[in-house]
Design goal:
Layout (H helix, E strand, L loop, with lengths): L4 E4 L6 H9 L4 E3 L4 H4 L8 H10 L13 H23 L3 E5 L7 H7 L4 E6 L2 H10 L1 H4 L2 H4 L6 H18 L8 E5 H6 L1 H11 L23 H9 L10 H4 L2 H17 L17 H73 L1
Parallel strand pairs: 1-3, 1-4, 2-3, 4-5
Length: about 350
Protein backbone atom coordinates (compact mmCIF):
# COMPACT_ATOMS: atom_id res chain seq x y z
CA UNK A 1 0.00 0.00 0.00
CA UNK A 2 1.31 3.42 -0.97
CA UNK A 3 2.21 5.74 1.91
CA UNK A 4 2.69 9.22 0.45
CA UNK A 5 4.59 11.91 2.33
CA UNK A 6 2.75 15.22 2.67
CA UNK A 7 4.39 18.64 2.80
CA UNK A 8 2.31 21.04 4.89
CA UNK A 9 2.69 24.82 4.75
CA UNK A 10 0.67 27.93 4.04
CA UNK A 11 0.88 29.46 0.53
CA UNK A 12 4.18 31.30 -0.13
CA UNK A 13 6.04 29.55 2.70
CA UNK A 14 8.49 27.53 0.60
CA UNK A 15 6.48 24.37 -0.04
CA UNK A 16 7.34 24.26 -3.75
CA UNK A 17 11.06 24.82 -3.14
CA UNK A 18 11.07 21.99 -0.60
CA UNK A 19 9.13 19.77 -3.00
CA UNK A 20 11.63 20.33 -5.82
CA UNK A 21 14.65 19.84 -3.55
CA UNK A 22 13.26 16.49 -2.40
CA UNK A 23 12.41 15.61 -6.01
CA UNK A 24 16.13 16.00 -6.75
CA UNK A 25 16.79 12.83 -4.70
CA UNK A 26 17.21 9.61 -6.69
CA UNK A 27 14.55 7.81 -4.60
CA UNK A 28 12.03 10.63 -4.01
CA UNK A 29 9.39 11.90 -6.43
CA UNK A 30 7.94 15.30 -5.62
CA UNK A 31 4.64 15.69 -7.45
CA UNK A 32 2.98 18.97 -8.50
CA UNK A 33 0.02 20.21 -6.45
CA UNK A 34 -2.91 17.80 -6.16
CA UNK A 35 -5.77 20.07 -5.14
CA UNK A 36 -8.22 17.53 -6.53
CA UNK A 37 -7.54 15.15 -3.63
CA UNK A 38 -8.88 17.24 -0.75
CA UNK A 39 -10.70 19.92 -2.73
CA UNK A 40 -8.31 22.70 -1.84
CA UNK A 41 -9.21 24.55 -5.03
CA UNK A 42 -12.91 23.76 -5.00
CA UNK A 43 -15.00 20.89 -3.60
CA UNK A 44 -16.87 20.19 -6.85
CA UNK A 45 -14.11 17.94 -8.24
CA UNK A 46 -12.78 16.68 -4.95
CA UNK A 47 -11.86 13.08 -4.14
CA UNK A 48 -12.48 13.95 -0.50
CA UNK A 49 -15.91 15.30 -1.43
CA UNK A 50 -16.85 11.99 -3.04
CA UNK A 51 -15.69 9.97 -0.03
CA UNK A 52 -17.49 12.37 2.31
CA UNK A 53 -20.71 12.06 0.26
CA UNK A 54 -20.55 8.27 0.23
CA UNK A 55 -19.92 7.99 3.98
CA UNK A 56 -21.92 10.86 5.49
CA UNK A 57 -24.57 12.23 3.16
CA UNK A 58 -28.14 11.05 3.70
CA UNK A 59 -28.26 9.94 0.06
CA UNK A 60 -24.81 8.30 0.18
CA UNK A 61 -23.89 4.62 0.14
CA UNK A 62 -23.39 4.13 3.88
CA UNK A 63 -26.83 5.51 4.76
CA UNK A 64 -28.69 3.62 2.04
CA UNK A 65 -26.94 0.32 1.38
CA UNK A 66 -27.08 -2.09 4.35
CA UNK A 67 -23.70 -3.63 5.04
CA UNK A 68 -21.68 -0.77 3.59
CA UNK A 69 -19.55 0.76 6.35
CA UNK A 70 -17.39 3.93 6.36
CA UNK A 71 -14.26 1.82 6.89
CA UNK A 72 -15.07 -0.12 3.73
CA UNK A 73 -15.45 3.07 1.70
CA UNK A 74 -12.16 4.46 3.04
CA UNK A 75 -10.33 1.22 2.28
CA UNK A 76 -11.61 1.21 -1.30
CA UNK A 77 -10.83 4.94 -1.64
CA UNK A 78 -7.33 4.32 -0.31
CA UNK A 79 -6.71 1.57 -2.85
CA UNK A 80 -8.13 3.62 -5.72
CA UNK A 81 -6.05 6.72 -4.96
CA UNK A 82 -2.95 4.61 -4.32
CA UNK A 83 -3.39 3.08 -7.76
CA UNK A 84 -3.45 6.48 -9.44
CA UNK A 85 -0.47 7.85 -7.51
CA UNK A 86 1.54 4.63 -7.95
CA UNK A 87 1.40 5.13 -11.72
CA UNK A 88 3.15 8.49 -11.29
CA UNK A 89 5.74 6.95 -8.96
CA UNK A 90 6.41 4.13 -11.42
CA UNK A 91 6.80 6.58 -14.30
CA UNK A 92 9.39 8.47 -12.24
CA UNK A 93 11.13 5.18 -11.32
CA UNK A 94 11.33 6.22 -7.68
CA UNK A 95 10.31 4.79 -4.31
CA UNK A 96 8.91 7.60 -2.16
CA UNK A 97 6.09 9.93 -3.24
CA UNK A 98 5.91 13.46 -1.82
CA UNK A 99 2.72 15.49 -2.24
CA UNK A 100 2.26 19.17 -1.50
CA UNK A 101 -0.82 21.35 -1.74
CA UNK A 102 -0.99 24.21 0.80
CA UNK A 103 -4.77 23.98 1.20
CA UNK A 104 -4.41 20.38 2.39
CA UNK A 105 -3.89 21.88 5.84
CA UNK A 106 -7.64 22.46 6.06
CA UNK A 107 -8.23 18.73 5.63
CA UNK A 108 -5.43 17.12 7.65
CA UNK A 109 -7.95 14.92 9.48
CA UNK A 110 -9.12 13.45 6.17
CA UNK A 111 -5.53 12.76 5.06
CA UNK A 112 -4.77 11.04 8.36
CA UNK A 113 -7.87 8.88 8.05
CA UNK A 114 -7.08 8.02 4.43
CA UNK A 115 -3.36 7.40 4.98
CA UNK A 116 -2.86 6.86 8.74
CA UNK A 117 0.76 5.69 8.30
CA UNK A 118 1.88 8.60 6.13
CA UNK A 119 4.59 11.05 7.16
CA UNK A 120 4.16 14.82 7.25
CA UNK A 121 6.79 17.53 6.71
CA UNK A 122 5.76 20.95 8.01
CA UNK A 123 7.56 24.02 6.65
CA UNK A 124 6.82 27.43 8.16
CA UNK A 125 7.95 30.98 7.42
CA UNK A 126 7.73 34.42 9.05
CA UNK A 127 4.12 35.48 8.46
CA UNK A 128 5.21 39.01 7.56
CA UNK A 129 7.28 37.65 4.67
CA UNK A 130 4.41 35.32 3.74
CA UNK A 131 2.08 38.34 3.63
CA UNK A 132 4.45 40.39 1.46
CA UNK A 133 5.03 37.52 -0.95
CA UNK A 134 1.28 36.95 -1.18
CA UNK A 135 0.56 40.63 -1.84
CA UNK A 136 3.00 40.54 -4.76
CA UNK A 137 0.69 37.99 -6.40
CA UNK A 138 -2.64 38.81 -4.79
CA UNK A 139 -4.55 38.61 -8.08
CA UNK A 140 -3.57 34.93 -8.34
CA UNK A 141 -3.68 33.82 -4.72
CA UNK A 142 -6.83 35.31 -3.23
CA UNK A 143 -9.20 32.40 -2.84
CA UNK A 144 -12.40 32.12 -0.87
CA UNK A 145 -10.48 30.78 2.12
CA UNK A 146 -8.57 34.09 2.45
CA UNK A 147 -11.72 36.19 2.19
CA UNK A 148 -12.84 34.59 5.45
CA UNK A 149 -10.07 36.45 7.27
CA UNK A 150 -10.91 40.03 6.40
CA UNK A 151 -10.16 42.59 3.73
CA UNK A 152 -7.72 40.48 1.66
CA UNK A 153 -4.73 42.52 2.83
CA UNK A 154 -1.53 41.89 4.79
CA UNK A 155 -3.39 41.24 8.02
CA UNK A 156 -5.77 38.71 6.45
CA UNK A 157 -2.80 36.71 5.13
CA UNK A 158 -1.15 36.77 8.56
CA UNK A 159 -4.40 35.77 10.24
CA UNK A 160 -4.78 32.74 7.97
CA UNK A 161 -1.11 31.87 8.58
CA UNK A 162 -1.72 31.95 12.34
CA UNK A 163 -4.80 29.71 12.27
CA UNK A 164 -3.30 27.20 9.85
CA UNK A 165 -0.04 27.03 11.84
CA UNK A 166 -1.98 26.36 15.04
CA UNK A 167 -4.01 23.65 13.31
CA UNK A 168 -0.90 21.81 12.10
CA UNK A 169 0.89 22.00 15.43
CA UNK A 170 -2.18 20.95 17.41
CA UNK A 171 -2.80 17.99 15.11
CA UNK A 172 0.73 16.65 15.53
CA UNK A 173 1.25 17.47 19.20
CA UNK A 174 0.03 14.08 20.44
CA UNK A 175 -0.16 10.56 19.06
CA UNK A 176 0.69 11.68 15.53
CA UNK A 177 3.96 13.36 16.50
CA UNK A 178 6.08 10.36 15.47
CA UNK A 179 5.19 10.82 11.80
CA UNK A 180 5.86 14.55 11.80
CA UNK A 181 8.87 16.83 11.32
CA UNK A 182 9.06 20.59 10.86
CA UNK A 183 11.54 23.14 9.62
CA UNK A 184 11.59 26.84 8.88
CA UNK A 185 11.92 28.31 5.41
CA UNK A 186 14.70 30.55 6.71
CA UNK A 187 16.79 27.58 7.86
CA UNK A 188 16.11 25.72 4.61
CA UNK A 189 17.55 28.51 2.42
CA UNK A 190 20.40 29.39 4.78
CA UNK A 191 21.54 25.87 5.65
CA UNK A 192 20.03 23.62 3.00
CA UNK A 193 22.35 20.68 3.52
CA UNK A 194 21.63 20.41 7.23
CA UNK A 195 17.86 20.70 6.86
CA UNK A 196 17.65 18.29 3.92
CA UNK A 197 19.81 15.80 5.83
CA UNK A 198 17.31 15.94 8.69
CA UNK A 199 14.42 15.28 6.33
CA UNK A 200 16.24 12.45 4.56
CA UNK A 201 16.87 10.78 7.90
CA UNK A 202 13.18 11.20 8.71
CA UNK A 203 12.32 9.49 5.40
CA UNK A 204 14.91 6.73 5.97
CA UNK A 205 17.10 7.59 2.98
CA UNK A 206 20.62 9.00 2.72
CA UNK A 207 21.21 12.65 1.85
CA UNK A 208 22.52 13.19 -1.69
CA UNK A 209 24.79 16.06 -2.69
CA UNK A 210 22.81 16.87 -5.84
CA UNK A 211 19.69 17.73 -3.85
CA UNK A 212 20.82 21.32 -3.26
CA UNK A 213 21.45 21.98 -6.95
CA UNK A 214 17.94 21.28 -8.19
CA UNK A 215 18.31 23.12 -11.51
CA UNK A 216 20.46 20.28 -12.86
CA UNK A 217 17.58 17.82 -12.51
CA UNK A 218 14.32 17.42 -14.39
CA UNK A 219 11.19 18.41 -12.45
CA UNK A 220 7.51 18.86 -13.11
CA UNK A 221 6.71 22.58 -13.29
CA UNK A 222 3.01 23.11 -14.20
CA UNK A 223 2.52 26.51 -15.85
CA UNK A 224 -0.60 27.18 -13.74
CA UNK A 225 1.29 26.69 -10.48
CA UNK A 226 2.77 29.99 -9.25
CA UNK A 227 5.28 28.35 -6.91
CA UNK A 228 6.64 26.19 -9.73
CA UNK A 229 7.15 29.22 -11.94
CA UNK A 230 9.03 31.04 -9.18
CA UNK A 231 11.30 28.13 -8.27
CA UNK A 232 12.06 27.33 -11.91
CA UNK A 233 12.92 30.94 -12.76
CA UNK A 234 15.27 31.34 -9.78
CA UNK A 235 17.17 28.17 -10.59
CA UNK A 236 18.95 28.03 -7.23
CA UNK A 237 18.50 28.37 -3.49
CA UNK A 238 18.93 31.89 -2.16
CA UNK A 239 17.98 33.79 0.97
CA UNK A 240 17.12 37.10 -0.70
CA UNK A 241 13.46 36.72 0.23
CA UNK A 242 14.16 36.43 3.96
CA UNK A 243 13.07 39.60 5.77
CA UNK A 244 11.47 41.30 2.76
CA UNK A 245 8.77 42.66 5.08
CA UNK A 246 11.23 45.18 6.52
CA UNK A 247 11.26 47.06 3.23
CA UNK A 248 7.92 46.15 1.67
CA UNK A 249 5.34 46.14 4.44
CA UNK A 250 3.72 49.46 5.53
CA UNK A 251 4.45 50.31 9.16
CA UNK A 252 0.79 50.39 10.15
CA UNK A 253 0.40 46.83 8.83
CA UNK A 254 3.48 45.73 10.79
CA UNK A 255 1.93 47.13 13.98
CA UNK A 256 -1.39 45.38 13.38
CA UNK A 257 0.23 42.02 12.73
CA UNK A 258 2.71 42.21 15.59
CA UNK A 259 0.04 43.28 18.07
CA UNK A 260 -2.11 40.32 17.10
CA UNK A 261 0.52 37.62 16.57
CA UNK A 262 3.73 39.03 18.04
CA UNK A 263 3.97 36.55 20.91
CA UNK A 264 3.56 33.65 18.50
CA UNK A 265 6.21 35.09 16.17
CA UNK A 266 8.71 35.49 18.99
CA UNK A 267 7.92 31.96 20.15
CA UNK A 268 9.06 30.74 16.74
CA UNK A 269 12.26 32.77 17.03
CA UNK A 270 11.31 35.74 14.85
CA UNK A 271 12.19 39.25 16.04
CA UNK A 272 9.67 42.07 16.16
CA UNK A 273 10.04 45.51 14.60
CA UNK A 274 11.08 47.05 17.94
CA UNK A 275 14.20 44.86 17.77
CA UNK A 276 15.18 46.03 14.28
CA UNK A 277 17.06 49.29 13.70
CA UNK A 278 15.60 49.87 10.24
CA UNK A 279 12.08 50.27 11.67
CA UNK A 280 11.31 53.53 13.47
CA UNK A 281 10.10 52.93 17.02
CA UNK A 282 6.60 54.24 17.71
CA UNK A 283 6.29 55.81 21.13
CA UNK A 284 2.69 56.88 21.19
CA UNK A 285 1.22 54.40 23.69
CA UNK A 286 -2.31 55.64 23.19
CA UNK A 287 -2.06 54.96 19.46
CA UNK A 288 -0.72 51.48 20.12
CA UNK A 289 -3.53 50.70 22.57
CA UNK A 290 -6.08 51.97 20.08
CA UNK A 291 -4.52 49.93 17.31
CA UNK A 292 -4.56 46.84 19.53
CA UNK A 293 -8.25 47.40 20.25
CA UNK A 294 -8.96 47.74 16.52
CA UNK A 295 -7.10 44.49 15.85
CA UNK A 296 -9.12 42.72 18.56
CA UNK A 297 -12.34 44.01 17.05
CA UNK A 298 -11.22 42.95 13.58
CA UNK A 299 -10.57 39.44 14.85
CA UNK A 300 -14.06 39.33 16.38
CA UNK A 301 -15.62 40.63 13.16
CA UNK A 302 -13.69 38.08 11.10
CA UNK A 303 -14.80 35.31 13.43
CA UNK A 304 -18.43 36.37 13.09
CA UNK A 305 -18.01 36.65 9.33
CA UNK A 306 -16.76 33.07 9.16
CA UNK A 307 -19.66 31.90 11.33
CA UNK A 308 -22.05 33.59 8.88
CA UNK A 309 -20.32 31.81 5.97
CA UNK A 310 -20.74 28.49 7.77
CA UNK A 311 -24.43 29.24 8.36
CA UNK A 312 -24.85 30.14 4.70
CA UNK A 313 -23.34 26.78 3.75
CA UNK A 314 -25.70 24.98 6.15
CA UNK A 315 -28.68 26.90 4.76
CA UNK A 316 -27.64 26.00 1.22
CA UNK A 317 -27.40 22.35 2.22
CA UNK A 318 -30.85 22.49 3.84
CA UNK A 319 -32.30 24.09 0.72
CA UNK A 320 -30.72 21.38 -1.34
CA UNK A 321 -32.25 18.72 0.91
CA UNK A 322 -35.65 20.43 0.72
CA UNK A 323 -35.40 20.49 -3.07
CA UNK A 324 -34.58 16.79 -3.05
CA UNK A 325 -37.54 16.12 -0.75
CA UNK A 326 -39.80 18.10 -3.09
CA UNK A 327 -38.60 15.95 -5.97
CA UNK A 328 -39.43 12.86 -3.95
CA UNK A 329 -42.94 14.23 -3.26
CA UNK A 330 -43.42 14.94 -6.97
CA UNK A 331 -42.30 11.42 -7.82
CA UNK A 332 -44.67 9.96 -5.23
CA UNK A 333 -47.52 12.12 -6.56
CA UNK A 334 -46.83 10.90 -10.08
CA UNK A 335 -46.79 7.32 -8.84
CA UNK A 336 -50.13 7.89 -7.11
CA UNK A 337 -51.67 9.40 -10.23
CA UNK A 338 -50.44 6.45 -12.29
CA UNK A 339 -51.98 4.05 -9.78
CA UNK A 340 -55.31 5.92 -9.96
CA UNK A 341 -55.25 5.78 -13.76
CA UNK A 342 -54.41 2.09 -13.62
CA UNK A 343 -57.29 1.51 -11.21
CA UNK A 344 -59.71 3.36 -13.51
CA UNK A 345 -58.60 1.25 -16.46
CA UNK A 346 -59.12 -1.94 -14.48
CA UNK A 347 -62.56 -0.78 -13.31
CA UNK A 348 -63.51 -0.01 -16.89
CA UNK A 349 -62.34 -3.43 -18.02
CA UNK A 350 -64.29 -5.08 -15.20
CA UNK A 351 -67.49 -3.19 -16.09
CA UNK A 352 -67.11 -4.14 -19.74
CA UNK A 353 -66.75 -7.79 -18.75
CA UNK A 354 -69.88 -7.61 -16.59
CA UNK A 355 -71.85 -6.04 -19.41
CA UNK A 356 -70.75 -8.72 -21.88
CA UNK A 357 -71.73 -11.48 -19.43
CA UNK A 358 -75.17 -9.95 -18.98
Amino acid sequence: MLRPVFILGVPRSGTTLLRVLLDSHSKIAGAPETGWITGGYGPETSFRGLVDYLTRHELGAVNNLPGVKPDTVFELARNFLSGILSEYLTQKNKEILVLKTPDDIKYIDFLLELFPDSKFIHIFRDCRDVACSTMRHKELLYGSDLKEYGDSGFFAVAYRWYEWELKVRKTFSGENSGNYIRLSYENLVRNSRRELSRICKFLCVDFEQGMTDYAKKQHDYPSWELGSRDVKSRGKINSASVGIWKNEMPKDEIIKIEKAFGSYLTGLGYGLSSDIDTITEINNKDAIRLQSKIVDENIKVNSLHRQIINLDERIAEKRKNIKQEKLKVIEQRNDLENLIIEKEVLNKMMNELKMSND
